[in-house]
C-alpha cells in the first residue's frame, strides 16, 4: 500500500514564494494518478493567505495516523514525503523545512533528518521516498524541530529501502523559474509527440519539481525499459538536472541518494516514448558553429544568431561545439547521456 505526506508553503509573512503550493498540488496529482496512492492515503498540506495552516502539529498527527494504518498492513508499504517551500541547510544530511511562521519565529522548522528517522523507525514501511524542493543555505541559528513522541526508537523489524532527493546541493540556493514552452512551435508535447510536460507551463514553479514530475512521467527511463527505478531517477537527476536549470539561466545542481538498497525501488512504470529530438542547443552569439560527434566527425555546421535554437537527435556519447570565427574562444564539450532524455546546452 502506498501512502503520502505532501507539503507546499508559499505564504511566508516576510519571504513569500510563488510556486511551492502549485508544485505540491502537481506532485500530489501525480501521486494519485500515476504513483499508486489512493486519495484517502494522501495528506496534502498547502498554505493560503487566510489561515495559519501548515504550522507543524497537524503534520505530526497525519504522519502518526498513516504510521498506525501502515503498521497493521502486512503487504509492502511505501511512504512518499514531499516538501516545497523555504529550507535551511543545518548539516550536510539535515535540511530544516521552514513552516508557515518562519522567519518571524526563527526556528519554526522541522528537521528533515529527524523526520526521516521517524519514518524508518516506525515499523510501518518497506520503502521511503523523500523529495525536498527547497534551499539548503547554511544557518547556524536554525536547528529544526524533531517530531513529537518517541520518534527515535525503532518499532518492529522493518528496515526500509530509502530514496532521498534534494533540489540543490548543501549550502546552495534552489530556484523558482518562469516556465515557458521548451519547443519551437509552442505546441504542448511537441518534443516527445505526447502530452504536455510539466516543464511546458507558463507559470512560476520550482525548477526541480517540474523536472522531477517529467522524470517520473518517463524522462528518467533512459534505457527505454518502461520502468523508473530509484537508480534510474538518481542517475537522471545527476546527469541532466543541471542542464535543465541552465536552460533558465540558473546554477542549481540537484542530488539524489539511496540507503539500505534503495536503488532497487521500482517507483513506477511508464509508456516507452522516444522524443523527436534529445538535445537542444541555444546559441548566445552571432557566428559560424560546428557540432562535432564522439569521433570528432562534423555533424552540423552553420551560421547562427543570438537566441537561435538547434534541435538534434544524438546518440549517447561526448560532443563538442566550436566557434569557427572566433578561434580564441574555447570549444564547449558536453555529454549526451541517453537517446531518450532531452538535454539542454547553451553556447
UniProtKB/TrEMBL annotation:
<dbReference type="GO" id="GO:0006508">
    <property type="term" value="P:proteolysis"/>
</dbReference>
<dbReference type="InterPro" id="IPR011600">
    <property type="entry name" value="Pept_C14_caspase"/>
</dbReference>
<feature type="domain" description="Peptidase C14 caspase">
    <location>
        <begin position="2"/>
        <end position="250"/>
    </location>
</feature>
<protein>
    <submittedName>
        <fullName>Caspase family protein</fullName>
    </submittedName>
</protein>
<dbReference type="GO" id="GO:0004197">
    <property type="term" value="F:cysteine-type endopeptidase activity"/>
</dbReference>
<dbReference type="Pfam" id="PF00656">
    <property type="entry name" value="Peptidase_C14"/>
</dbReference>
Amino acid at each position: 500500500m502506498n501512502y503520502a505526506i505532501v507539503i507546499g508553503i508559499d505564504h511566508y509573512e516576510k519571504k513569500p514564494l510563488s510556486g511551492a503550493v502549485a508544485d505540491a498540488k502537481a506532485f500530489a496529482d501525480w501521486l494519485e494518478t500515476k504513483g499508486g496512492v489512493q486519495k484517502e492515503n494522501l495528506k496534502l498540506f498547502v498554505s493560503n493567505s487566510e489561515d495559519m495552516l501548515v504550522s507543524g502539529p497537524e503534520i505530526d498527527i497525519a504522519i502518526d495516523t498513516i504510521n498506525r494504518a501502515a503498521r497493521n498492513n502486512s503487504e509492502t508499504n511505501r511512504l512518499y514525503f514531499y516538501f516545497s517551500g523555504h529550507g535551511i541547510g543545518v548539516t550536510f544530511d539535515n535540511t530544516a523545512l521552514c513552516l508557515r511562521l518562519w522567519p518571524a519565529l526563527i526556528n519554526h522548522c522541522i528537521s528533515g533528518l529527524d523526520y526521516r528517522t521517524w519514518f524508518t523507525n516506525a515499523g510501518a514501511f518497506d520503502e521511503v521516498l523523500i523529495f525536498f524542493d527547497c534551499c539548503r543555505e547554511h544557518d547556524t541559528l536554525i536547528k529544526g524541530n524533531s517530531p513529537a513522541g518517541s520518534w527515535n526508537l525503532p518499532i518492529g523489524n522493518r528496515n526500509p529501502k530509502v530514496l532521498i532527493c534534494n533540489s540543490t546541493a548543501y549550502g546552495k540556493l534552489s530556484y523558482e523559474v518562469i516556465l515557458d514552452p521548451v519547443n519551437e512551435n509552442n505546441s504542448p508535447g511537441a518534443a516527445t509527440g505526447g502530452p504536455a510536460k510539466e516543464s511546458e507551463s507558463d507559470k512560476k514553479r520550482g525548477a526541480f519539481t517540474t523536472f522531477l514530475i517529467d522524470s517520473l512521467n518517463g524522462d528518467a527511463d533512459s534505457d527505454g525499459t518502461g520502468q523508473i527505478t530509484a537508480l534510474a531517477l538518481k542517475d537522471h537527476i545527476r546527469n541532466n538536472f543541471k542542464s535543465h536549470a541552465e536552460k533558465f539561466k540558473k546554477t542549481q545542481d540537484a542530488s539524489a541518494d539511496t540507503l539500505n538498497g534503495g536503488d532497487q525501488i521500482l517507483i513506477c512504470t511508464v509508456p516507452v516514448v522516444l522524443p523527436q529530438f534529445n538535445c537542444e542547443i541555444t546559441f548566445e552569439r552571432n557566428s559560424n558553429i560546428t557540432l562535432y560527434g564522439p569521433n570528432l566527425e562534423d555533424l552540423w555546421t552553420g551560421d547562427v544568431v543570438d537566441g537561435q535554437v538547434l534541435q538534434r537527435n544524438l546518440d549517447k556519447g561526448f560532443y563538442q561545439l566550436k566557434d569557427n570565427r572566433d578561434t580564441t574562444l574555447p570549444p564547449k564539450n558536453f555529454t549526451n547521456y541517453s537517446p531518450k532524455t532531452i538535454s539542454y546546452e547553451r553556447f
